[in-house]
Design brief:
- By secondary structure, this protein is mainly alpha-helical.
- Helix content is 44%, strand content 7%.
- It contains 5 helices and 2 strands; from the N terminus they run αααββαα.
- The protein has helices spanning 9-23, 26-43, 58-72, 127-134, 138-148, and strands at residues 106-110, 122-126.
- It has a two-stranded antiparallel ribbon with strand order 1-2.
- The chain is elongated.
């Protein structure tokens, strides 16, 4: 497919389409996910994560991810659900649209939410488990405690 002339609406649509395709690959999805923890650290100065500067590099995140995949496969560390890497296609402008999360998509969990992103405190899990753990009860913690033994250090 030939690229439309730069600066045109067709070109913008074409570039968005290419970005969407890349963002739905494992590498593209993870690249954006890893970047997001650094972006949030910079922009959320009034958020609950204030001061949570990651103590891990992107390269180390990739190494931890590949190590977890090698040992456990591409499954949630907590529930063993197969992880997905799917971005929803935007139909509206970002400011007008509420993003619906895909519950099986991979997420980065800080096992101990009182600590930053660092080796020994990171679990790659599904978005649903990360959300549940955020507002978990004692029954949920049985699975989270089992997952703790699997975290790569």
């Amino acid at each position: 497919m030939k690229s439309p002339p730069k600066g045109t609406e067709e070109y913008k649509t074409y570039k968005r389409h290419l970005e969407y395709i890349y963002a739905n690959t494992e590498h593209g999805f993870l690249t954006r996910l890893f970047q997001s923890i650094y972006t949030r650290a910079k922009s959320n100065q009034t958020h609950r994560n204030k001061g949570w500067i990651p103590e891990i590099t992107k390269e180390q995140l990739w190494q931890l991810y590949h190590k977890q995949v090698k040992i456990y496969g591409r499954v949630c560390l907590y529930c063993n659900q197969v992880l997905t890497f799917n971005r929803n296609k935007r139909e509206k402008k970002l400011s007008e649209e509420r993003i619906q999360q895909i519950r099986t998509n991979i997420s980065i969990d800080r096992y101990d939410p009182d600590q930053t992103y660092k080796p020994g405190n990171i679990a790659f899990c599904c978005w649903d488990c990360n959300l549940k753990k955020n507002s978990s009860n004692i029954k949920n913690w049985v699975n989270f405690l089992k997952g703790r033994k699997k975290i790569i250090k």
